Amino acid sequence: MKEQLEAIRQEALDNIEEASDLKALQDIRVTYLGKKGSLTSVLRGMGSLPEEERPAIGEMANEIRKAITDEIAKKIDVLEQEALEEKLEQEAIDVTLPGRPVQVGGAHLLTGIIEEIEDLFIGMGFEVREGPEVETDYFNFEAMNMPKGHPARDMQDTFYLTDELLLRTHTSPVQARTMQQYSGSKAVKMICPGKVFRRDTDDATHSHQFTQIEGLYVDEHVRMSDLKGVLNEFAKRIFGEDRRIRLRPSFFPFTEPSVEMDISCKVCQGDGCSVCKYSGWIEILGAGMVHPNVLEKAGYDPEIYTGFAFGMGPDRIAMLKYGIDDIRNFYTNDKRFLTQYHYAKGGTL
């Protein structure tokens, strides 16, 4: 039996040495050490041996089992190391090769303008509020002093989803919701940026979807002069310290009195040119003192509270600031335009 065990040892070690992969090693383990393996079969015959020989044969069998197991483990380490070296060689990187250029993205021009305006008004104590783009007729029109049948509704050709649901035509509903939430219990100082929708024919200066930022300040003793001061600061910060503003009488159903704000033309410095249609001024936004009816609907006592509101289009501001002549460029994902007007903080391109 000793001769048989030695033969098994030598055969197993030779096979382990010649094994070229992990599967072959597993087969060797089963062939010699498995339940039906060579070593197990020999050990089953120990019962026929004289009792005094059994301890020596058992000890020898354990040594052979250990030797085979150890050699299999060593061979596994060798094969794994060889596989790793082969993989590293195949995946080797030539660090002397020139790198591939990576195009770095940036904020879209409209996003950058909106964030710049937000930062400006936050610095003046305004908070940024948002609201739903699918709005009710009440908050979009009635809370803004435009009851059903009011002719001012025709100025905002509306996408209606149902008789009472629509795509908001301005961000004013956010103001109405905020005031109603406070119910006349505290002052409101906020801006509300967002997308708005109107049934309009798309061309160089019109779009069925565009962005808008509206502002609202309601408190005791708010005056028209406060509005002018805020708008003057806005114009200088966005368009340059040399910009001048003027306020012209206008009409909006939710403000009284209402004004349009113009800024002096940066091309001709107010002398008159083709850009400003030889007037020296460019219209930029609408504003006014909050109508008492709007305050009353939101739960504010117009005898105690007054306020001002304004609304501007970031699309138009960007077009004026950077000389862009077609609003559709903002929405067509033209890579040439996006690259040319890559926005950087501080208003530089």
Automatic annotation (TrEMBL):
Subunit record text: Tetramer of two alpha and two beta subunits.
Binding site for Mg(2+): 256
Record keyword ATP-binding present: yes
NCBIfam families: pheS (TIGR00468)
Note on how the cofactor is bound: Binds 2 magnesium ions per tetramer.
Cellular compartments annotated: Cytoplasm
Family the entry assigns: Belongs to the class-II aminoacyl-tRNA synthetase family. Phe-tRNA synthetase alpha subunit type 1 subfamily.
Cofactor(s), names only, from the UniProt record: Mg(2+)
Enzymatic class: ligase
EC numbers: 6.1.1.20
MF (Gene Ontology): ligase activity
Protein name per Swiss-Prot or TrEMBL: Phenylalanine--tRNA ligase alpha subunit
Record's keyword terms, sorted: Aminoacyl-tRNA synthetase, ATP-binding, Cytoplasm, Ligase, Magnesium, Metal-binding, Nucleotide-binding, Protein biosynthesis
Limits of the Aminoacyl-transfer RNA synthetases class-II family profile domain: 70-340
Catalysed reaction equations from the record: tRNA(Phe) + L-phenylalanine + ATP = L-phenylalanyl-tRNA(Phe) + AMP + diphosphate + H(+)
